[in-house]
Amino acid sequence: MKRTRRSLAAALVTAATLATAAPATADAPDRVIEPLEFTNPAHPLFTEACGFPVEVHVWGEFMVTTWTDDEGNPVREFRQFKFRSTTSANGKSVDGITMGPETAVFNDDGSTTVYIRGIVNRRIPGAGTVVLASGFGLNIWPADGGEDIVVVPTNGPESLQPLCDYLAP
Fold it and tell me: According to the UniProt entry, where is the signal peptide (predicted)?
């Protein structure tokens, strides 16, 4: 009985201590939705592959979660994205989708390391799906705003010939 009372007293003291202790706090990450829409009247990759101007209209959004350090500087960002697209030429169009996450790590030297995972494709009538990019990629965005450094390219694109054949005049 004495042992039970001691155990009960110890449990009550522990519970009271835990109940009155201040909870651990950390700044919660910021979460925002960033819509994006643009039209490129002569998409460089498609226009070069097809030999005629190919327009791409893209719309969708990034769901962005950003973590900051004690001074409020961003240190990491997770971007879940989903975009739809219409690729057009010569009065014909195909639909596509781009989706996946990317993670950006903001480095002390001002550069950003970006880990990309996802898929980009177009559905072509009579030919099925053409994958433009898929899998994992790793890019470095230089601090000086120079060209991206592709460390690990994503897979793709598959042959663009079915897309060009469908959109041809």
Answer: 1-21
